[in-house]
Amino acid sequence: MLTISFFSAAIIAGTPLLFATLGEILTQKTGNLNLGVEGMMLMGAVMGFLVGFHSGNPFLALLAAMLAGAMGAGIYALLTISLRANQEVSGLALTTFGTGFSSFLGQSLVGQVTPKSISNFFNPIAIPGLSKIPVIGPIFFNHDVFVYFGYLTAILLGIYLYKTQKGLNLRAVGENPGAADAASINVTLYKYVHILLGGALCGLGGAYLSLVYVPAWQENITAGRGWIAVALVIFAVWNPYRALFGAYLFGGLDIIGFRIQGTSIQVSQYLIDMLPYLVTIIVLVFVSFKKSQEHSPPKGLGKPYFREER
Amino acid sequence: MSTENPYLKMEGLTKTFGKVIANNNVNLQVNKGEVHALLGENGAGKSTLMNMLSGIYTPDSGSIFIGGNNVKFSSPKDAIDAGIGMIHQHFKLVDVFTAKENIILGQKQGGFFTNNKKMGQGIRELSQKYQLDIDPDKKVYDMSVGEKQTLEIFKVLYRGANILILDEPTAVLTPQETTKLFKIIKRMTEQDCAVIFISHKMSEVMEIADRITVLRKGQTIATLDKDKTNPKELTDLMVGKSVDLSIKRIETPKEEIALEVKNLSVLNEEKVQVLKGLNFNIRSGEILGVAGIAGSGQKELCESIAGLYPVHEGEIIFKGENLVGKKPAEIIAKGVTMSFVPEDRLGMGLVASMNIVDNLILKQYQAQKGFLINRKPAIAKAKEIVKRFDIQTPGIYHPIRDLSGGNIQKVLLGRELDSNPELLITAYPVRGLDINTCHKIYDLLNEEKKKGVAILFIAEDLDVLIELCDRIMVIWDGRVSGILDAEKATREEIGLLMVGEKSDKTEGAYAI
């Protein structure tokens, strides 16, 4: 069962999770908890598919997906940053909104398949040289461009967060917005920009599902993956590199059910569906036991910031 | 020192919040190379003035001149660019960052990546110039309070500040750390910086300041040379009338021991021992002061006597009876009360969104019978307490959140004293209060002492401990490092004990 084809499939199943997780990491690093990942993924999935279906252009489709995700995040950002609404409630509302938005726009698309021009664009491309490495090559380097873009995004996000001045400023905003403000960092601007970017990444995660993974439109295409991404952020202890590992692990857990059905082992599908959440709970227990300062959530997470409040 | 051409000039500054006039036509002039102290009671407008100078508030009218140029700040960034550095009372540091990361935070000239040699060199040069000891790779969460403050000062200097505002910088420091801070301030003035020093502590103002400006009710009252004034005159100017500054130590007859604590040890949630075998006693009609760096076990001590903290080992004997293992309600019924004023003032003992009456009921509903609460006795009590303690409130049904800090503390203390305790535990009762209100609270404690109440008084201000208490117990790292006779104790001696240095004078004082 644990064959190369299984691991390769786990990477593909993990890719939508990876984008959504990276998006949520970026969001939470600003100190804002956005529980609307599921909603933003659905908005990205439907807009990406809609534009792709009508235009046949993969780039336009991806752009539309990112804009849709960012638009969802924009609603959330406006509510929580400028209007100081409760972050949890706003995020949950965004999920409800995104679900309705995708059902409404997707009504006429149900059952439609991704146009040829797009699915051709996302055909697997073996990377010369790397794909020849035994075991590793076929698992990691024989995929569509979207998967490679996922690797790249995670690595770039890691460099951005830990090696650049802007990343340092961003982490300060999430940890202690008062300190960031006193260091003349524009807290509101940093929050808006990164929450919007985070939303765009979530939108991309959704578009991968509708354009490449399925690849057709179906109602509620994300099927709870947005929530798994929220759990993955904790699993990855807010680190993009660990998110890379976590997303593929959870991708594997996601498809393990199908694989088991083909064998003689009898396990309930519901038990297998529980696995990602169970793993998250175990990680949460470990993280809180360790009480490490480095591996804890951003200190300002969930708290709104007003300069003049004491 | 020329006063004709001040480096910083604030002229006719006015700031109102709704109907409240926080600053009314305030004037302040600060020269290069001087330490200028700002004195004033709570609500005199010191913070408002400094917030306007650091760009957090925009003045309604008036102007600020720096080096002769009229400046207008619309954000803290503008103020920083003009060379103004504010060192906040609550440090603006990111705990999980290293010192270096905190220093370069928000900097523009560093380029895209943080790993930059030029910055490291800049930090080294600056630390030599001002002789500030900074370990660039140390994480803030591993630093002591003094180190954090040094880092804050360094951060501000690194941003090119030449006007430094220190907002009650000594509130959290030990006497030794304060001495170190004053040396740093001296070096800054030698480098031609202007330092604005805000403090409640008269002795420190007299030690460090060159000139002093007194604010009262949002107005500038006077600017005086330190050499031509004295604490008495400054206090009178601050309060607006003649005040008696002395704290009386009332002599009471030697009575029997009310509380005896033997070998008290407690463990915190992580099973780390936070109190390590404490031994002490308090007589009826005696005030035992407790000095110690914040977090040395003060809170655990209070809470274990009050029955809120599990005792690992040892005995707490009150009137011949061991309190260990008793429920808080039983301990209260025996006449033990506790009031702990935490740093945020509201965190313990009172519910901010409830009014005075409901906060009183919290403590006495258990004494009532029946299912429903009878509010009448509490209403009467509330009226009495408001009258007796002169609490400024729109009414007893007003949420206490809206009262000023001093009034909230009076409500807490009033409630605890109202139960006619035999043992009063009070921690930081004057935290953040101005001199006038402080003295009212000291008087209240003395009144209780006269009645024969045993008082455990935990405080930050060593001068007050020395003047008010009968004996002073110093704790360090969960241990008693010494118990001194207050009449003979000195600040230096207490300061040394606070950091665990042994003193040979302590042995005899413990004898009862």
Fold topology:
The complex is a heterodimer of chains A (310) and B (512).
Chain A lengths: L3 H26 L7 H19 L2 H25 L4 H20 L9 H6 L3 E2 L9 H5 L1 E2 L1 H19 L1 H11 L1 H6 L4 H27 L11 H11 L4 H22 L7 H22 L20
Antiparallel strand pairs in A: 1-2
Helix pairs in contact in A: 1-7, 1-10, 1-11, 1-12, 2-3, 2-4, 2-10, 2-11, 3-4, 3-10, 7-8, 7-12, 11-12, 11-13, 12-13
Chain B lengths: L7 E10 L2 E11 L4 E5 L6 H8 L7 E6 L2 E3 L4 H6 L2 E4 L11 H6 L12 H13 L15 H14 L4 E5 L7 H16 L3 E5 L3 H7 L2 E6 L2 E7 L5 H9 L17 E11 L5 E11 L3 E5 L6 H8 L7 E6 L2 E2 L5 H6 L2 E5 L15 H9 L11 H13 L16 H14 L4 E5 L7 H16 L3 E5 L3 H7 L2 E6 L2 E7 L5 H8 L7 H5 L2
Parallel strand pairs in B: 3-8, 3-9, 6-7, 7-8, 13-18, 13-19, 16-17, 17-18
Antiparallel strand pairs in B: 1-2, 1-4, 4-5, 9-10, 11-12, 11-14, 14-15, 19-20
How does this model look, in words?
The complex is a heterodimer of chains A (310) and B (512). Chain A has 310 residues and is mostly helical. Chain A has a single domain (4-290), classed as ABC transporter involved in vitamin B12 uptake, BtuC (Orthogonal Bundle). Chain A is built from 13 helices and two strands. Chain A has a two-stranded antiparallel ribbon. Chain B has 512 residues and is of the alpha/beta class. Chain B has three domains: 8-239, Rossmann fold, CATH 3.40.50.300; 257-335 and 421-510, Rossmann fold (3-Layer(aba) Sandwich), CATH 3.40.50; 350-419, no CATH class. Chain B has helices at 46-53, 76-81, 99-104, 117-129, 145-158, 175-190, 202-208, 231-239, 298-305, 328-333, 356-364, 376-388, 405-418, 435-450, 462-468, 491-498, 506-510, and strands spanning 8-17, 20-30, 35-39, 61-66, 69-71, 84-87, 163-167, 194-198, 211-216, 219-225, 257-267, 273-283, 287-291, 313-318, 321-322, 336-340, 423-427, 454-458, 471-476, 479-485. In chain B, the strands form four sheets. Chain B has a six-stranded mixed sheet with strand order 6-7-8-3-9-10, with helices on both faces. A six-stranded mixed sheet of chain B has the order 16-17-18-13-19-20, with helices on both faces. In chain B, a hairpin with a 2-residue loop joins β19 (471-476) and β20 (479-485). In chain B, α11 crosses α12 (376-388). The longest helix of chain B has 16 residues, at 175-190. Chain B is globular, with a radius of gyration of 25 Å. The model of chain B is unreliable at 505-512 (pLDDT under 50). Chain A binds chain B through residues 163-169, 171-172, 175-176, 178-185, 293-294, 296, 299, 307-308, and chain B through 56-57, 75-77, 80, 86, 88, 90-97, 101-102, 104-107, 110-115, 139, 141, 155.
